Amino acid sequence: MKQALSETSKQFVLERKDFPDLLMALKKRDYQTLGPTIHEGAIVYDELKSVEDLPIGMTDEQEGGTYRLQNRDDAALFGYVVGPHSWKKFLHPPKLLLWRARRNHSGFQMEAENTAPPRMAFIGVRACELQAIAVQDKVFINNQFVDAAYQSRRQNVFLVAVNCGQAGATCFCASMNAGPKATSGFDLALTEILENHRHYFVVEVGSELGAKILGEAPHREASVEEITAAEAIVARTAKNMGRHLDTSDIKELLYDNYEHPRWDDVAARCLTCTNCTMVCPTCFCTTVEDVTDLRGEVAERWRKWDSCFTMDFSYIHGGSVRTTPKARYRQWLTHKLATWQDQFGTSGCVGCGRCITWCPVGIDITKEVEAFRNEHSLEARTRDEI
To answer: Alpha helix locations (H) across 218-338?
Structure first.
């Protein structure tokens, strides 16, 4: 065991020309290889049949309410940040059949879903997304109650992380201690390097299975210079982070400002469209729907993604608890950054910036917290002067 752990602490070099061998090694072990692809003008996660399905030579430009793809001046495989998809859709599917009942001569017969989820290999997982998966692990399987559907998918996942070579304008993972370098939770972690007409990856091994998979592709131990080059890329990315969120005493800050007029300001801009929760890699709200066919022969119960921004989400007998955009935005932000800590011992935000990019009106979670903090500090200074 000590020898195996020692091996995983080393770093290796995988040349770009040998990257397909890594995918092939996973396919040979019956993994469904999933990763970034281009679809309808965005980078989304889907099945990778070959390396050519990756967004080669493409990058993304992001700002509040803005997303577009641009051509790079090189052939980087992972030269983008994050798109609208998160890995959540594979582990916590948007739509899940809970049970089906079919009518027979004596009533209804329950039909069990016996289809086992596929073995999945996630290719190109960013550090913030690894943190998001760890957060959902706390919610679904490392808690008092276990979600069997999530657990069955999660236990057969192979994670190939990619350290970020650039930061997006809406990224603030460094503020959340969630990136830009993957530090745990991966089987393999790659840093893509293009310099001096060379294109290669510095690879860190995070598990024994990761070492075995890498062993099926040509590789060699990395030199000090190559490791230093990889570290410099990550350091530069951290320095160029597009946003910053001050998380000091953030739980108390939000609890102390529950009735602050700033909530009215953001509510006037919020469309309650649910985009922020749909693209968020940690949000997990769902609803349950019962449906039947037109002949009344089959009944089904489905679990579907929902959002705390919808009126019906907080509906109980007599009406909805949160009837206003103010109440719903306050619930989302306070839960994400404060009450999530009380529930699960961690923040519900990993700093990926998706909620900023994909908000149609560009509401910025970092600026909202900053506004509370600035006014809170002003009030404190005024009290001190008095």
So the answer is: 224-239, 250-256, 262-269, 275-279, 325-334
Task: State yes or no: pLDDT of 8 exceeds 70.
Answer: no
Per residue in 327-346, pLDDT (tens digit) is 999 999 999 999 999 999 99
Report helix, strand or coil for 315.
strand
Helix count and strand count (H, E) for the chain:
14, 16
Q: Which two tokens stand for residue 332?
A: 């989302």
Write out the DSSP string of 120-164: EEEEEE-HHHHHHHHHHHHHHTSSSS--HHHHHHHTTEEEEEE--
Q: Are 173 and 125 contacting, i.e. CB atoms less than 8 angstroms apart?
A: no
Average pLDDT score, the chain: 93
Q: Backbone phi, then psi, for 4, in 5-degree steps?
A: -65, -40
d(CA 216, CA 25): 6
Q: Residue 116's pLDDT is what?
A: 85
- Give me the residues paired with residue 188 across strands: 160, 205
**What is the value of pTM for the model shown?**
0.92
Q: What is the DSSP letter of 116?
A: P
What local confidence, expressed as pLDDT, does residue 379 receive? 55
How far, in Å, CA of 115 to CA of 267, rounded? 44
Pick from 134, 32, 46, 119: which is nearest to 83 by CA? 46
| pLDDT at position 129 over 80 | yes
Q: Cβ distance 78 to 48 under 8 Å? A: no
